[in-house]
Amino acid sequence: MKFNCSKTFFIISILFIYACQDNTQIDKPLYKDPILKYTIFQSDLDKYISYRNITDTTGKTKEYLQLLKGVVLRLKNTTAAMTYEKAVNDAEDFLRRKNMINKVLVVKNERKMYLLKDKKIIKTYPISLGPNPIGQKEYEGDGKTPEGTYTLDWQKWNSSTLHSFHISYPNKLDSIRAKMKNLQVGSNIMVHGTSMGAKKKKDWTNGCIALSNNDMNEFMHMVFQDTQIEIRK
Predict the structure, then answer these.
(1) Measured distance CA(185)–CA(169) in Å, rounded
(2) CA dihedral in degrees (192, 168, 113, 98; nearest 10)?
(3) Which residue, 33, 69, 71, 80, is most buried by CB atoms nearer than 10 A?
(4) Which residues pair with 112 in a beta bridge?
(5) What is the mean pLDDT of residues 58-79?
(6) Domain spanning 103-232: CATH superfamily
(7) What residue segments make up the domains of the chain, in order of their start?
(8) How high is the pLDDT of residue 18?
(9) Cβ pair 129, 108 in contact under 8 A
C-alpha cells in the first residue's frame, strides 16, 4: 500500500485547525448598544451567574441583560474606585426600584396620588392642583389639570420646585378639543415638588400636580421616566 505523505499531512493539518477552533471559546456578543458604544458578551453573563452562584437561569436571560447593561456602564463610565461588587449592587438596586412601580394614578377630587404595581397600591401621597381643578383642561391658563392617560416623558433636573416630571399633555385628542374651540391648548404640565420648600395653600399650581418636597424625594427614587400616569376627575 502506498502512503501519500502530503495528503496525510494536509488532512492532519485540517483536523488540527478544527480541534483548535473547538477548544477555543468564542466570546459571543449578546447585546450591542450603537449609541453608547458598549457590548455585553457571554463572558459578562457567565461572570455574573458565577458571582451570584445562580444555578437556575431558565428564561432569565432578558432580565440578566437588563442588569448587565447597568453593570457594564457603571464600570465603563466611573473611576477605578468602582469595583465589580459595587457595580453589581448598584445595578441590582436600580432595577429593584425601577420595577417597584409601573403606573401612577391621580384622582383629582380626592387630592391623592397612588403609585401602583400591577394595580396594587404601593404608596399614596396627598397632592395639590391648580386654582380651578374641577373638569378637563381646555386651554392655557384655565388653572385645570388635564384628565386622561399620559406618560412621564422627560424630567427637569434644575427645577425651581425641587424636581419635575413632565406629563405628555397635550395628546392628539387634547389638541383637537382645543382647536375646535379656537383655544390655545396649554403645555408644560408637570408632577413636581414645592417651590423653595415653602408652605402653600391647598391648590396653588398652574395646573400641575404638586407633592411636598419630602414626598417628591421619595417619588423620584421610585418612579422613572416613561412610566404611565392616569389622571381621573
Answers:
(1) 9
(2) -90
(3) 71
(4) 107, 126
(5) 90
(6) L,D-transpeptidase catalytic domain-like (2.40.440.10)
(7) 26-98, 103-232
(8) 53
(9) yes
